[in-house]
Amino acid sequence: MLRHVSLNEWRGLAADRTLWAVGALLAAVLFFGAFNGARWSALQADRQAKLMAEQQERIDDTRAALLKPPGEARSRFSDPRNPAQVGQTFAASFAVLPRAPLAPLSVGQSDLLPGYYKVTLATREALFAGDELENPANLLTGSFDVAFVIVFLYPLVILALSYNLLSGEKENGTLALTLSQPVSLAQLAAAKIVVRGAVAFGLTCAFTLLGALGAGVDLGSPGAVAALAALFGVTAVYGLFWFSLALLVNSFGRGSATNAMVLAGAWLTLALVIPSTVALLATSLYPVPSRVEMIQAVRLATRDASARGAQLLGAYFADHPEMAPEGEIDAGDYYSRKFVVEEEVAKQVAPVSGRFEAQIRGQQAVVSKLQYLSPAVLTQQSLNDLAGTSYARFSHFQREAERFAGEWRAHFLPQVFQRAEFTAGGLDELPRFVYQREPGSIVASRVGGASVLILLVAAGLFGWSIFALRRYPVAG
Fold this sequence. Notes:
16 helices
């Protein structure tokens, strides 16, 4: 009997112009989202390619200069044999975050957080100086891409197909006639949801796949098919939540107009109001200190450390005798003093920068805890994770860049302090940045945990609906 009910539901749905209008609109926004994401992803790829080309060009120029026969004397500031200049300028290396296969489908945080760092002999504070410190709202919403369509517009498609799930037949006077057949109201509602869910989910997946192929997603790259399958799984779970919510609202027996208003209010609350409120709460509870304080602290620390340059250099060599050059120590050596002064400035500024970072961690903690109030936020985070554009991945990349920066300084500073001469062979021994990605199990746990939570809520709503349907007024 359910088969006949489902078949009849499909026939009625196919004859309704609403389905075709909604399908056409869904295709249009998904294709536009894929185009927009592909354009941004291509821009990033082009930028990274230019950075790597620039890096290689600098290294090639430095190699050519080092291989030239000795000519006229050069200033240490332009001499490629000076390891300080090589590490700081001539061979400065870029730490680049590799693009994930599904990146065109979700811009995520990639338009807000850096996908590369220029690694020199500068301290950690200088490495991350360009970061945005106050942006918790950026964790909650994204650009107009496929993920945006799934998170914000896909629920509207579901609600447009299900706001009158039962009320439509009741108002047309056909519900009592249908229930005169050997089928219960719960079975009828389930059949309607299965058919409409299959249509909404099928169209979304089909248009997403076509959009992904049009956006240049390489499904042959490692992990691409699995990530896309997981994306479809997240979409299915998210859709199930909205269908369960629509069924619950329908089960109260109100009219179609009332159902539409209630569901529109729920969408507005869960998709827009709660994320904005969470962002406001995060910035209110953990306001970032004024940047003026940071700038002032750096100035004072630089003035103090510069005045004690010779003393700091002597203390450094006393603590690190292996770094000291042979013969007499030149307390006036520019580069040696420069780097010990920078180290001292970093130590003095650390408490101030620590307060900045503590506030940011507090903001992120608020966002991470309160994101469970909205399935839209959880789904956005999951899609970003699968596309490799999540805040978590960028944080991991920042730690990788910091690790590489430490290796870079450890490679060059002994040569700087010992006033060694850099040679062309040294270019082949430079540290290379190799991104160590997050273990797949960690990403899977984040995505799976969010999906399980949404699924449990959907199951609860569905169970409540089935209970409420026992008292549903079929007539009147």
